[in-house]
Amino acid sequence: MDDFLPIAMRDITKPSKDGGHSGWEDVGGLNDIQNSIKEIIELPSKFPNIFIQSPLRMRSNVLLYGPPGCGKTHIVGAAAAACSLRFISVKGPELLNKYIGASEQAVRDIFLKAAAAAPCLLFFDEFDSIAPKRGHDNTGVTDRVVNQFLTELDGVEVLTGVFVFAATSRPDLLDAALLRPGRLDRLLFCDFPSQRERLDILSVLSRRLPLANDVNLDAIAHMTEGFSGADLQALLADAQLEAVHSFLDSENGSNQGKMPVITNALLKSIASNAKPSVSEAEKRRLYDIYSQFMDSKRSAAAQSRDAKGKRATLA
Q: HEC states along 176-227?
């Protein structure tokens, strides 16, 4: 029974303690994002009687956007593990197929599988690759995929017990119809971590590492201004590898049975030579894109209000 997997559950994982993610304790920083996801997923399952008396459909579909390496994919896996949800992860381009109708069929199959496995969390990574603005693709494949997404997310058949999450670093490339209320209507911005959040991330990542007693993670957090979560993980991996090299170089009879230890001096030297993966110019470009994206969302809402007012006066 332990090793048996039903056909309906293939490609569906239920994250466990042994499977990498163990819950919210694996996430450093991103407190606002955590609270929003808990509000969406945990409250309806903890207080079902209250939500049964609220017949309106919950806003349970989320778009996570932000610079690369800031924990968008990581926090979704941790959320699924923390809430004991079945987890379906879809890498964007794997849905696309050159044959007519095959891509739309792949989207339908994914949503059918998610509905059969409810309650589950359905996650689309690199969402801009499969749902760009309609009319920009000469082949028309992505246009039909977007249309299929629109009908699946907010069609006649209501998704019950399926939480749809999507992640992208370029939300401006997505089709605007996907972001209206009822579809991916909760927009959560995953920004570069602050100094306090970097300290949280370093504490979480270094929990299983052999650190010396003199290691000052607060000083490392001060030194790594502008680093993303992925950069901090790479920094600790480099320090671990350097500690292993130092251990092997100094290995003698007295070192038998000991482990390579990351010292404060070693960690500081690695941090002083490390550079963030996203440059200042690239960071400014991304922030300009995100501000224009939010401005366009606000202006679209204002235009729709103005249009309603005009129709009311003309009538």
A: HHHHCCCCCCEEEECCCCCHHHHHHHHHHHHHHCCECCCCCHHHHHHHCCCC
Quick one: tokens of 125? Answer: 């990574």
With contact defined as beta carbons under 8 Å apart, do 186 and 41 qualify? no
Residue 88: strand, helix, or coil: strand
Closest among 32, 293, 44 to 188, alpha carbons compared:
32
Exposed, middle or buried, 13 (CB in 10 Å: 0-12/13-18/19+)? Answer: middle
pLDDT in tens, 233-280: 999 999 999 888 888 887 654 555 577 888 888 889 988 888 888 889
Strand partners, 248: none
Residue 173 one-letter amino acid:
L
Give the DSSP H/E element, type plus range, for residue 124: strand 120-125
Letter for the amino acid at 91? Answer: K
What digits encode the pLDDT tens for the residues 15-36? Answer: 444 445 567 888 888 888 988 8
Structure tokens at 111: 């949503």
Kindly give, in sequence order, each residue whose CB lies less than 8 Å from that of residue 62, ignoring residues fewer than 6 positions away: 36, 37, 40, 163, 164, 165, 166, 184, 186, 187, 188
What tokens does 220 get?
């490392």
Determine the 3-state secondary structure of 89 from DSSP.
Answer: strand
Number of Cβ within a 10 Å radius of residue 39: 13
**Six-digit token string for 45:** 């399952």
Q: Are 71 and 27 in contact (CB under 8 A)?
A: yes
SS3 248: helix
51, exposed or middle or buried, with CB in 10 Å at 0-12, 13-18, 19+?
A: middle
